[in-house]
Amino acid sequence: MLRRLQLTGHLHTFRHTFISHSLLKAPEHVVRGWVGHVDPNVIRNYSHVTDHVSRSYVDAL
Hints:
Layout: H1 11-25, H2 28-35, H3 40-44, H4 51-60
């Protein structure tokens, strides 16, 4: 599939990135529904807060 789209990398990498970015904008339970994870602990393995995002929340305080 990725080859057909002329993308390099692994499907899991794109999935990981999609989930991480989605969690910044959508509630966790919605993202879990999109990607098929029912267990909140599993979805947390995919989420990462970047320094930039973390700083923006601190700045907002």
